[in-house]
Structure formats: structure tokens, C-alpha cells
Design a protein that fits this description.
Shape: globular
Largest sheet: 7 strands, mixed
Structural class: alpha/beta
Bound molecules: NADP nicotinamide-adenine-dinucleotide phosphate, zinc ion
Strand content: 25-35%
Distance between the termini: 18 Å
Order of helices and strands: EEEHEEEHEEEHHEHEHEHEHEEHEHE
Helix content: 10-25%
Number of strands: 17
């Protein structure tokens, strides 16, 4: 066992604070990572505040991990000491079911092991990346290409893959009109990635306050969803809409913006159920679906794509002492566009 310095929530209602945690002994296929940076995802906040239920405490959040390999087990083949690596939302899966064999470990039929708040195969509760070190089995450790600075790479491990996966699955590319709803951590990555894939990109944000940023990030068009004219003007326009909003949305209103056979993909995960009118799905015919992060092979593909296209997240690096303030700013949609913790401040 080794001690890591971390930041943890003691309950759904308490602010996060320092905590020493134990990481397991290095097994033969384990990698010990010295974490350098960890992004703050809105999912961390949903979980810490127990909005999705079943949270366990103390809880160390963080699943956008970037760091350096500090040590490897005797049988590790994929990574070496000194490598630049990342860990996302999962740290293990059965490896043997039909989903795992397809490289869709996030849909492991036996249940993937989440990076925090889950029970690992060793029976221990997993604790996340707001910490100085983590031990992860080599198959769930990603390679961060040289071209991407570690701090700007960290958010790719969740925000990047969560938007890359549906953009690929639903064919974002030249000749396709793609809208991204919500310009936060996921949304700003969605804009950069859809643009790099060659799509015509529109941001649908609550207001026009971030319009300049949206266009700089790569959007061709930018509209305010609080303006009812937006929905009239854009009716029947898009081939693909990726909804990244952390709160409930009017599903029917967004479906009305799709062209025939267009798809609305929800990745936003509000605690409340979404509802829709059946007619919105067939007048004209449209798809309403979701997407969960992405598998390990596709996550590596996304990191390589980002390096090739010089894409990293737009970040604000903060010390651990500012984590609670950052949570409030994320909740107020005041994030430009991902907070990233400098984990050297945890010591
Ligand atoms: P974020 O940085 O807070 O961004 C969410 C954005 O949604 C905000 O910046 C805001 O954009 C918009 N928004 C927030 N509240 C709103 C409201 N009441 N009405 C309308 N728009 C609102 O959060 P994030 O880290 O990108 O995560 C977004 C959601 O995705 C969360 O629910 C998270 O749990 C979920 N998530 C899902 C997956 C998955 O695999 N499916 C993975 C990661 C995260 P504007 O200011 O531009 O309107
Ligand atoms: Zn996340």
C-alpha cells in the first residue's frame, strides 16, 4: 500500500477537503501513475452531491487524469516509467464479455469499474484523480501523445471522448450540420472536435454571452436558446445534435431542429427524467438516443486525433484550495471551459 494525498467529500452536503488515502500494492499488470493534473467534470459534482444516488463517502472524485508513469508491475508491456499517460472514467472491466471484446468496455455486461465510487475487482472502493497517485491495470491506461500539454490533455479523458464518440457514431463530417447544445466542458470539446471532423458547427447556448468564444473554438454559427425565434429559424436544420446540458431540456423543442433521419444524442445526465411527445419522433422521422463516454480503443483514437489536429481543452488551472469555488462556478455556467486541478498543490 502507498499513501496518496487527495481531496475528498465527506458527505453530500460538506465541502471537499484534504484526505490521505491508500493505493493498492502494484500487481503484476498494474501501473503506478504520478498524477499531474485532473479535470473537474460536472459528473463529479452530480456524484459528490449524491444527485444520482448510491454515492459512497469519503469520496475522492476525478476521472480526467493526466500524469507520468512512476512504476510498473513485472508483467506490464504497454507502458514504461516516464510515459505520459491518462486515465478516464473507468479503471477495469471483465475483459471477456461481448462488449469488452468489441472494445466497448463502458458497456461491460458485468459492469465496468468506475474510477471513483465503485467497487474494484479487489473488493476495494475506488477513489479518483483529485489525488497525487493512482494504481490502474495497464489496459485502462491511455497514452497521451507528445503534442498535447498534460494540463490541456486531462479533460480529453472524459469531456473529449464523451463528445468524440457520438460525433463519430452519427457521422459528423463534411456536408453534415452539427449542433452542440451547452458550451461548457463537454460542449467546448464537441465544438472543436466536430469542426476538426469537417462538419458545419452551430452552438446552441442559453445566451449570446459566449458567442465570441464559440466562434473562436470553431463554430460557424451561434444562437441563444432563450430566444424563441432560434427554434423557428432553425427548425428542420440539423443532421446531428449533441446535447451536453447538465439540466433537464425541452426534448421536443430540440427534436424539432432535426432534419429527416437526424439524431439528437443526449450525453448530459440530469438527475430528473426527460420526457418527449411521440409525434416529435416521426413527424418527420428522427432519432433520440444517448451515449456513454467511449471504449478504450476509441479513447486512444480520440487522443491521437487531438494530437494530429492540435486540439486540447481550454482550461483554467487551479490549486486544490479552489476546488469548492470551482464547483460553484461550474454550477453557475461560469466555466471557461474546464477547471483543471494542479495536483502538486495537494501535498
Ligand atoms: P458543464 O461544464 O457544467 O456544462 C454544461 C453546460 O450546459 C453549461 O455550461 C451551460 O451551457 C449548459 N447549462 C447548464 N445548466 C443549464 C440549464 N439549466 N439550462 C440550459 N442549459 C444549461 O458540464 P459538463 O462537465 O460539460 O457536463 C455536462 C453534462 O454531461 C453533465 O450532466 C455530466 O454529468 C454529463 N456527462 C455525461 C457523460 C456521458 O458519458 N454521457 C460524460 C461526462 C459528463 P451554456 O451556458 O452554453 O448554455
Ligand atoms: Zn466526466
Amino acid at each position: 500500500m502507498s499513501t496518496a494525498h487527495a481531496y475528498a467529500a465527506a458527505s453530500a452536503k460538506s465541502p471537499l477537503g484534504p484526505l490521505a488515502i491508500q493505493r493498492r500494492e502494484l500487481g503484476p499488470r498494474d501501473v503506478l501513475i504520478e498524477i499531474k493534473f485532473c479535470g473537474i467534470c460536472h459528473s463529479d459534482i452530480h456524484t459528490v452531491r449524491d444527485e444520482w444516488g448510491a454515492a459512497t463517502y469519503p469520496l475522492v472524485p476525478g476521472h480526467e487524469i493526466a500524469g507520468i508513469v512512476a512504476s510498473v508491475g513485472a508483467e506490464v508491456k504497454k507502458h514504461a516509467v516516464g510515459d505520459r499517460v491518462g486515465v478516464g472514467c473507468m479503471v477495469d472491466s471483465c475483459g471477456d464479455c461481448s462488449s469488452c471484446r468489441k472494445g466497448e468496455e463502458q458497456h461491460c455486461l458485468k459492469g465496468m469499474v468506475g474510477t471513483y465510487g465503485a467497487t474494484g475487482r479487489d473488493g476495494q472502493l475506488t477513489q479518483g484523480g483529485y489525488s497525487t497517485h493512482i494504481v490502474v491495470t495497464e489496459d485502462f491506461v491511455l497514452k497521451i501523445p507528445e503534442g498535447i500539454p498534460l494540463d490541456a490533455a486531462a479533460p480529453l479523458l472524459c469531456a473529449g471522448i464523451t463528445t468524440y464518440s457520438p460525433l463519430r457514431r452519427w457521422g459528423a463530417g463534411p456536408g453534415k450540420k452539427v449542433a452542440i447544445v451547452g458550451l461548457g466542458g463537454l460542449g467546448h470539446m464537441g465544438v472543436k472536435l466536430a469542426r476538426a471532423m469537417g462538419a458545419e458547427v452551430t452552438v446552441l447556448s442559453q445566451s449570446l454571452s459566449k458567442k465570441e468564444d464559440g466562434l473562436r473554438l470553431g463554430a460557424h454559427h451561434y444562437y441563444a436558446t432563450k430566444d424563441p425565434e432560434t427554434f423557428q429559424k432553425l427548425a428542420g436544420t440539423f443532421d446531428l445534435i449533441v446535447n451536453t446540458v447538465s439540466a433537464k431540456i425541452d426534448v421536443d423543442a430540440y427534436l424539432s431542429l432535426l432534419a429527416l433521419d437526424g439524431a439528437l444524442v443526449s450525453v448530459g445526465a440530469p438527475p430528473e427524467p426527460l420526457s418527449l411527445n411521440a409525434f416529435s419522433l416521426f413527424m418527420p422521422r428522427r432519432v433520440f438516443t444517448g451515449s456513454l463516454i467511449g471504449g478504450i480503443p476509441q479513447t486512444q483514437e480520440m487522443l491521437d486525433f487531438c494530437a494530429q489536429h492540435h486540439i486540447g481543452a481550454d482550461i483554467e488551472v487551479i490549486p486544490a484550495s479552489k476546488i469548492n469555488d470551482a464547483y460553484e462556478r461550474v454550477l453557475a455556467s461560469d466555466v471557461r471551459y474546464r477547471f483543471v486541478i494542479d495536483t502538486s498543490t495537494l501535498k
